[in-house]
Amino acid sequence: TETIEHRVMLPPGKAGVIKSIESGSFNITQTVCKLEDGSEISMMQEWPVRHPRPFVQKYAPDVPLITGQRILDFLFPLAKGGTAGIPGPFGSGKTVTQQQLAKWSDAQIVVYIGCGERGNEMTEVLDEFPHLIDPNTNKPLMNRTVMIANTSNMPVAAREASVYTGVTIAEYFRDMGYNVALMADSTSRWAEAMREISSRLEEMPGEEGYPAYLSSRLAEFYERAGRVETLSGDDGSVSVIGAVSPPGGDISEPVSQGTLRIVKVFWGLDAGLARQRHFPAINWLSSYSLYPQALDQWYRDNIASDFPEVRTEISTLLQIEAELQEIVQLVGSDALPIDQQLTLEVARMIREFFLQQNAFHDVDTFSDLKLQYDMAKAILNFQEEGKKAIAGGAQLEDVVNVPARTDLMRGRFEEGYDGRIESLVSEMGKQIAASMEEN
Fold first, then answer.
1. Every domain of the chain and the residues it spans
2. How many Å apart are CA 321 and CA 279, to the nearest integer?
3. I need a labelling partner for 217 at 20 to 30 A (CA). Which of 60, 164, 300, 417 fits?
């Protein structure tokens, strides 16, 4: 396509001296290169899907996969070549989250596996992606997307094979030196297909009727992720993001538990947040990422020297809010000391201004890391200025209701917000200081 250059590769394990190479237009089965030993090379390779493709070595995961989703990039980052699981009940936003990652992640190629889900979801991707522009190349997103459709009305055996097919295609592009993101929606349906095939083969069932080898198959799949040095000496990566659809949203079932044991990032979707219309409905208290320590140096070098500290402060405020909410439910927020009331307001600002993101809004759907950092700093700036003003005698209500704070929060839906955020923050500081003088 216009975006992706398809490179001709020697099959793994083959070597030799090129005798002749063709130029022009060919289909994938025609010979484009001949070796001196008589071997013919085409633009296609055959490979058994259940076997990982070889590479020289795996690197440590120290470069983030930037998704443009604030809660994911800032609080629970995924590294290139990393693994993530998105478990969540029906209607909590798994598919929209997966589609957002397929749209905006900074991978060069996206492989999207629709495994046992509704056909409409695949149709949505087919409808939307040709019209959406990739922010990195300014070309339609469809040019970099590989789709594997195995919807719920297709044969069970094909569904079981589709996940392996997807990860093998991802490895094939990785071997060309590309960074690939693989979305599997949903691994639960894949596990159910394995259960059905296993029962037909009359194998001994394990927990909840799943085959005893379920966890090893899940591990085989996720272990094919990684950032590697390819056989040609290039660097490439496959990042795997698997959605899990536990029946009734109960993540104690075998597929969810098997996935959680393997993946390094857990983005837990919460039906309660979805009912409150807080999207993405990722619970910031139960989710986690094991990559931040490995990625911190990259953030310090490329975004800001205090990026990890700002992230820690934001996380701490959200945890303090959860503790204070228990007291608020008993006695009401007015009974709290004024500094704790301010903390609740700051945490509400984090939730509504920073963590909420509108996937269907042209501007808010994607935030780059620099803007995310500026927004987080703006929130901490509001907290600092608010503390000073309240210590100087200002009323909490006056501090919270300054017009510049409202402009700052609404501005994220407008074009050019990243250029205006600094002036909005300084204006907010002036207005908060003025509210102290009035009192």
1. 1-44, 57-289, 304-438
2. 19
3. 60
What are the tokens at 325?
Answer: 């909410």
What does the block give as tokens for 252? 């104690």
**pTM for the full model?**
0.92
Kindly list the averaged pLDDT for each block of 10 residues, start to end, along the chain of length 439: 87 90 89 91 92 96 96 97 94 89 92 89 87 85 92 87 95 96 93 94 94 95 97 95 92 95 96 94 97 97 97 97 94 92 96 95 94 97 95 91 94 93 94 85
The secondary structure of residue 34, as a DSSP letter, is: E
CA gap 65, 420 in Å, rounded: 26
Identity at 37, one-letter amino acid code = D
Q: Which two tokens stand for residue 85?
A: 């699981």
Phi-psi region for residue 116, left (φ > 0), alpha (ψ -120 to 50) or beta?
Answer: left
| 57-289 has CATH 3.40.1160.10 classification | no
Of 75, 22, 56, the closest CA to residue 291 belongs to 75
Q: What is the DSSP string of 255-317?
A: HHHHHHHH-SEE--B-HHHHHTT-SS-B-TTT-EES-HHHHHHHHHHHT-TTHHHHHHHHHHH
* 3 state DSSP class of 179: strand
Sorted by sequence, the CB contacts under 8 Å of residue 27 that are 6+ apart come out as: none
β-pairing, 235-244 vs 226-229, is: antiparallel
Dihedral (Cα; 260, 265, 271, 276), 10-degree rounding: 160
| CA torsion through residues 40, 45, 48, 54, sign | positive
Sheet holding 31-35, edge to edge: 18-21, 31-35, 40-42
Check: CB of residue 318 under 8 Å from CB of residue 284: yes
Residue 107: phi, psi to the nearest 5?
Answer: -75, 155
Of the candidates 384, 380, 378, the residue with the CA atom closest to the CA atom of residue 404: 378
Tell me the fold of 304-438: 1.10.1140
Distance CA 180, CA 437 (A): 55
Q: What is the DSSP letter of 353?
A: I
